[in-house]
Specification:
Layout (H helix, E strand, L loop, with lengths): L2 H6 L4 H18 L6 E2 L2 E2 L1 H19 L6 H40 L5 H7 L1
Antiparallel strand pairs: 1-2
């Protein structure tokens, strides 16, 4: 026990984090997660345990386990909205940029433009 725990009689937040959260992180990372395969299929109970484990890891890694439930929901809403916007924008604009880059590099390395080919015919 450290000095504050000896005098106050109750454990501090730091000792609770060391006691409960840090061992769970090491168990999840180093001894494997609870997703097991049985006879070519997944066990539903183990899938539920895996999803709970993954959500718990998400809470720990992002640090939102210290927030109130309503703050967590606002944080999750903003985060997933931003991720959805990035995915949608990537889906819409990346093909256009790839096409433009291919046209640019084909012109740079000796490829002929469509207008030049039609003039030759």
């Amino acid at each position: 026990l450290n000095a504050t725990e000896q005098y106050s009689g109750s454990p501090t937040i730091a000792s609770r984090v060391r006691q409960y959260i840090i061992p769970d992180i090491t168990v999840g990372l180093y001894s494997g997660h609870p997703l097991h395969f049985k006879h070519g299929g997944m066990d539903v109970k183990n899938l539920k345990e895996y999803l709970c484990w993954a959500y718990y890891q998400y809470l720990l890694i992002t640090g939102i386990y210290v927030l109130e439930p309503w703050e967590q929901s606002i944080f999750n809403t903003v985060l997933f909205t931003m991720i959805a916007m990035v995915v949608y924008t990537s889906y819409v604009f990346i093909p256009i940029h790839v096409r433009l880059a291919l046209e640019f590099f084909s012109g740079l390395f000796g490829g002929q433009h469509e207008s030049t080919v039609t003039l030759m015919n």
